[in-house]
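sry for the spam today, last one i promise. struct tokens for design, 340 residues
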């Protein structure tokens, strides 16, 4: 009875408190094993002292210097007097044995590869730790990748830049690739984290968002794609090449903390996840893969992703994967005649 103040009021509160404790204990006991192994729960309760120590350590570190960053004034201002802290291994990725998609070998000059620039200028994707739109990172890396592939003999390779709002642009991409009767579709992106996992910092006198805990590359395929096995085979080739260069793999998508962004890990060695509902992967009529090249919400990795050195490593791995996927070119007719 409301406002009765009866004798069971105090005992009811105690019972509710005991019930809340029991529920909390059960919730912790039911957490997936992988979550406790990842140590993410303890990280959520880091002391303010350790967080402050991490911020001071990052402020003292000197990020990577790259001439490529001069194309954006915010990066140029940030890096004007800084020296390189650490560079990844240079050069293209060595070929790593991997399962072939089972298709006949192709002629590189006739192989129809579409390289999709993720997002649009109007809907430009995630924002980096220094407030640079993801679209700019995607465009830069994809453009250089297409140039490299063409120089390696894949002359038909096309750079797809789509305009408009986010969702309509996805269907435009699918229609363009399908109408071109492409043999392979690769979408280039750069990663971030859910807003709930970001922290604040100040850059150029303004408050920005970042997350230095997570980073690395990841690959996505869809079971809705009619060529799922071939998509997975191509993704594994890229992943093997990136791993061979000792690049970091983004394993956070397996953690409960990712919420609705959590994905099923198909291949832990190659860093391949399933993303069945993604339109550009599920509705294309050819094998399709989405590459998150690295995290731009991570302050150090943002600078690395903008550098030509890191871009060259990724481009080398993808180019090697395309060659392996395509298979060895047919022997020239003259060479065949000589053998006779």
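last one done:
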């Amino acid at each position: 009875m409301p406002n009765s103040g009866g004798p069971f009021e105090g005992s009811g509160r105690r019972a509710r408190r005991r019930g809340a404790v029991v529920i909390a204990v059960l919730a912790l006991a039911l957490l997936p094993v992988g979550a406790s192994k990842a140590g993410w729960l303890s990280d959520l309760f880091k002391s303010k002292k350790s967080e402050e120590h991490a911020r001071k350590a990052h402020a003292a570190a000197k990020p990577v210097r790259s001439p490529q960053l001069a194309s954006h004034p915010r990066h140029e201002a940030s890096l004007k007097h800084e020296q390189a802290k650490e560079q990844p291994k240079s050069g293209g990725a060595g070929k790593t044995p991997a399962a072939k998609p089972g298709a006949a070998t192709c002629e590189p000059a006739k192989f129809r590869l579409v390289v999709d620039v993720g997002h649009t200028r109007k809907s430009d994707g995630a924002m980096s730790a220094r407030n640079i739109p993801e679209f700019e990172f995607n465009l830069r890396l994809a453009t250089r990748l297409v140039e490299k592939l063409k120089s390696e003999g894949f002359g038909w390779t096309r750079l797809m830049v789509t305009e408009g709002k986010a969702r309509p642009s996805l269907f435009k991409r699918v229609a363009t690739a399908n109408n071109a009767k492409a043999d392979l579709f690769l979408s280039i992106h750069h990663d971030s984290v859910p807003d709930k996992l970001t922290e604040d910092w100040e850059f150029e006198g303004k408050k920005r968002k970042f997350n230095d805990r997570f980073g690395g590359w990841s690959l996505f395929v869809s079971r809705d794609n009619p060529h799922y096995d071939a998509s997975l085979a191509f993704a594994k080739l890229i992943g093997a090449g990136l791993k061979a260069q000792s690049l970091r793999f983004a394993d956070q998508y397996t953690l409960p903390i990712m919420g609705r962004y959590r994905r099923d890990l198909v291949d832990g060695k190659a860093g391949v996840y399933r993303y069945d509902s993604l339109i550009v992967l599920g509705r294309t009529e050819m094998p399709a893969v989405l590459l998150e090249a690295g995290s731009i919400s991570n302050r150090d990795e943002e600078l690395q992703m903008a550098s030509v050195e890191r871009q060259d490593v990724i481009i080398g791995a993808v180019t090697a994967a395309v060659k392996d996927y395509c298979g060895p070119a047919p022997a020239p007719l003259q060479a065949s005649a000589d053998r006779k």
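Residues 108-326 form a domain with the Aminopeptidase fold (CATH 3.40.630.40). ok im logging off now
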